[in-house]
Structures are given as structure tokens and as C-alpha cells.
Amino acid sequence: MKKIISIFLVIFGVLMLTFGTSSARRLQEMKTRTGSALYSNYRGVVTITEVKKTEKSKAQAKVAGRNEGYEVWFTFEPDKEEELEVDEGGKVEEVIKEEAVEEEVIKEKWGRRFVVGEHLFKLATGLYPNAKYIKKYKIKPGQTYRCTFRVMKQGRGTPFIFVIDGLPKDDVYN
Fold first, then answer.
1. What is the pTM of this model?
2. Could you tell me if residue 169 is inside a domain?
3. pLDDT reported for residue 80
4. Which residues pair with residue 84 across a beta bridge?
5. CA spacing 20 to 30 A to 44: which of 13, 17, 80, 155?
6. DSSP string covering 117-172, please?
7. In the structure, what pLDDT confidence band is assigned to residue 72 with cuts at 50, 70 and 90?
8. 90-108: b or e for each residue (b if 16 or more CB lie within 10 Å)?
9. Same-domain pairing of 120 and 98
């Protein structure tokens, strides 16, 4: 009986070490792959170019408990004098550029390509803002807001994010 228990404990121990190590290794790999990204942050101004109902924005009313939405389109113009760098810990460090050439305000080449043109504003849930949201935040063509354009420069995550001051993306129940 003691031999059977000893054999069982040895087998159990080997299995725990094998699968326990694999699980720990997989967990560490997952943390590395999904860890926080490092972003360059560029301040600028967002200008609302268009607010309109479309077939797509109206279609969200078909989802239970949702209202028709509006497509809100905007452009972004980066400031020419400063870049804000945020490290992984969230610490903000201001770097004043000596000579800012408009094309080089955003250092990441692919970030410069993306920032050109119009962009569609959506809430954090992926929904279009509804009439209450539009009214509450006084969104209309020509309206301007300060904004931070975040461009990922290292790690994994969302490659670029617009954080518009005064337009919270999490106000989905407005």
C-alpha cells in the first residue's frame, strides 16, 4: 500500500511540475504579448467636420435598448512645438522640440500617414454617439477640442488612439 501511495505521489509530483511549469511559462508569455504598450503622445486640435445620421448609425437602434446614432467625423492638427512622452508607468515627460517641421511633428512615419484626413468618432463600446450625447457635449461641425493623438512605438496594443478632451468615450448611457 505504501508503494502505491509513493508511486502515486511521484507521478503526481512529476505531472504538477510538468504542467505547472508549462502553465507558468504560458502565463508569462501571455503577459509579455498583451503587456502595456509604450506610446508617443502628440497634443493638437480636433475639428468636427460632419455630424450625420447614416444607415449604419441608424442600425444600432436594432440592438436592444439602443438609440439611433450619429456619425461624427473629425480632423486632427498636431501642435508644432511639443511632444509628450509617456513611459510604461504613466509618468509624463515634456519634451520641447527646437525646430518643428510640420511633417516631422509626429516622429513615427506610419503615425503621420494615419493622422491625415477625417476620422470617425465612436464610443468605447463601438457605438455611435446618440442624440443625447451630441446635445450634452454640444457637438457640431466646426467645433474644436484639444486632443492627444497616441501613437504606439513599442509593445502590443491599439496602434493609435485619439483622446479628445471633453468627449468621454465611456459616457455610453448619457
1. 0.65
2. no
3. 76
4. 41, 94
5. 155
6. S-EEE--TTSPPPBHHHHHHTT--TT-EEEEEEEEEEESSS-SEEEEETT--TT--
7. very high
8. eeeeeeeeeeeeeeebbeb
9. yes
3 phi/psi in degrees, rounded to 5: -65, -40
Residue linked to cell 500617414: 113
Encoded amino acid at 67, one letter: N
Which distant-in-sequence residues (6+ apart) come within 8 Å of 120 by Cβ?
71, 72, 73
pLDDT at 18: 52
Whole domain around residue 84: which residue ranges?
38-164
Closest-CA residue to 92 (of 23, 159, 48, 41): 41
Of 39-43, 117-121, 164-168, minimum mean pLDDT range = 39-43
